[in-house]
């Protein structure tokens, strides 16, 4: 969770600028904090979508995972919370995304390799956790579990599946969670500019509330 609270110095500065009571200044600061928090939240979301190659449904989940807890006049503190489960490789660019009924290599008609890409600055590469182990035996493949959930998985060397002892167990291939991805974006792009964003938001709010003075020329 990203948390930011305005100190008393900021409150006094707004009071001086507006020449208003502390209660009215707190309301102005609350609005400024909430505008800044919304701005930072949107930047985190945009940055995450720009940096990572996501499936469309994952982009929607990024929006849903990010929540702004708005400031109140009594506390003058806002927080951005990103809540998500651990991600799956299938949440990103996977080619093809089709399940082919049959053996663990994908079944009849399946391509030789499943390729995947997580970051835009990366490349679309073959999915194989152990490319040098027994040739391509442990390459990734698209699986559909009994629940209907589809994902990218691999066989676990040296194990035996309970329901199919002729084959090794299957495990899902995971990826960074939405929470982790947004944390990376925040640290790389926003950690040093939050105060500037808030200061500009406060300035905008002050200018908006200042009375307009009309003078005769």
Compute the number of structural domains: 2
Shape: elongated
Strand order of the largest sheet: 1-3-2
Number of helices: 5
Radius of gyration: 25 Å
The low-confidence parts are 212-217
Question: SS-based structural class?
Answer: alpha+beta
Structure description:
The protein has 217 residues and is an alpha+beta fold. It is elongated, with a radius of gyration of 25 Å. The strands form four sheets. Strands 1-3-2 form a three-stranded antiparallel sheet. It contains five helices and eleven strands, in the order βαααββββββββββαα. Mean pLDDT is 82; it is low at 212-217. The protein has helices at residues 8-18, 22-51, 56-65, 178-190, 194-209; strands at 2-5, 66-69, 77-82, 87-88, 93-95, 115-117, 125-126, 141-144, 150-155, 170-172, 174-175. It has two domains: 2-84 and 177-209, no CATH class; 86-176, no CATH class. It starts with a strand and ends in an 8-residue tail after the last helix. It is 37% helix and 18% strand.
What's the short story on this structure?
Helix content is 37%, strand content 18%. It is α+β, with helices and mostly antiparallel strands and 217 residues long. The longest helix is centred in the first third of the chain and has 30 residues, at 22-51.
Q: Any chance you could write out the topology, listing elements then pairs?
A:
Elements: E1 2-5, H1 8-18, H2 22-51, H3 56-65, E2 66-69, E3 77-82, E4 87-88, E5 93-95, E6 115-117, E7 125-126, E8 141-144, E9 150-155, E10 170-172, E11 174-175, H4 178-190, H5 194-209
Antiparallel strand pairs: 1-3, 2-3, 4-11, 5-6, 6-7, 8-9, 9-10
Helix pairs in contact: 1-2, 2-4, 2-5
């Amino acid at each position: 969770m990203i948390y930011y609270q305005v100190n008393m110095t900021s409150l006094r500065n707004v009071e001086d600028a507006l020449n208003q009571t502390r209660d009215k200044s707190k309301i102005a600061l609350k609005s400024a904090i909430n505008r800044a928090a919304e701005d930072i939240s949107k930047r985190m979301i945009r940055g995450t979508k720009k940096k990572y190659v996501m499936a469309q449904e994952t982009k929607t989940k990024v929006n849903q995972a990010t929540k702004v807890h708005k400031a109140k006049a009594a506390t003058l503190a806002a927080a951005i919370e990103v809540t998500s489960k651990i991600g799956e490789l299938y949440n990103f660019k996977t080619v093809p995304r089709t399940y082919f009924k049959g053996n663990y290599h994908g079944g009849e008609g399946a391509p030789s390799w499943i390729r995947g890409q997580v970051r835009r600055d990366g490349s679309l590469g073959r999915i194989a956790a152990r490319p040098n182990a027994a040739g391509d035996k442990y390459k990734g493949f698209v699986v559909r579990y009994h629940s209907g959930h589809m994902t990218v998985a691999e066989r676990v060397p040296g194990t035996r599946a309970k329901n199919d002892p002729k084959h090794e167990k299957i495990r899902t291939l995971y990826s960074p969670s939405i929470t982790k991805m947004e944390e990376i974006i925040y640290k790389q792009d926003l950690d040093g500019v939050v105060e500037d964003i808030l200061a500009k938001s406060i300035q905008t709010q002050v200018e908006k509330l200042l009375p307009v003075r009309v003078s005769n020329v």
